[in-house]
Amino acid sequence: MRVLVTGVKGQLGYHVVQELEKRNHTAIGVDIEEMDITNAEETRNVIENAHVEAVIHCAAYTAVDAAEENVELCRRVNVDGTRNIAEVCGRHQLKMIYISTDYVFDGEGTRPWKPDDVVVQPLNVYGQAKYDGEREVQRYVKSYFIVRTEWVFGENGHNFINTMLRLGKKNGKVGVVADQVGSPTYTRDLAVLLTEMVETDKYGIYHASNEGYCSWYEFTKEIYRQAGMEDVQVTPLTSEEFPAKAKRPHNSRLDKSKLTENGFHLLPPWQDALRRYLKNKLADDSVFH
Length: 289
Prior knowledge:
alpha/beta, six-stranded parallel β-sheet, 14 strands
């Protein structure tokens, strides 16, 4: 299968291309230099000339706090850019996988969000834009997968783990929010699932993250434990004590049962994903330079 992957320079797109090639598919990875998704004509030409059967759309504007002040840019990338891709996929009956987020939900309660839960009011500009992107996919594409994920980390880019390791080494102490609960997601594991999905016709909306729930505080404690940095002092904070421009959901728990119902494997526990990430990342000791 020939598959075009957007956002190849990002954490997820990078690993999706690797996984597709591992399974003997032809992966065409593009980023803004090769295909500016906000340019409809350029997007159409690149996809059509690539002669692909599917598009896995990983590119996105993901600066959640900055989006509050850059609404137009965020929507141009996450809504208009997604529409441009969806229109081409719909016209040529291509499969499309769109990566969305737990931020489409309002984050209330404690029950894990199901894929078919009604989206009422995303809490921030980023969440609203990603949800509007979902609707563009559904509007134009019949053979679509919408995959909502969260708390993403991977070797190819900046992420929460690297930040905690750097701050822990520099300061010996950190303050981390303890009242927001969700699941970390390793891009290597998510890439395997996306590749398995694109090989099928089990279309629809799915939730995907590594198994198990934790708060950012608990995640941080485990990062330091596994990295041998347990002497770093970690202070639990409330969301109010850690002000941010964009409001975050307290409840980011995702119900992933639809995956197994459709024959897909659940991702490994997040603690195991963290262990493998640290093994890969700390091997070159780059985090500490």
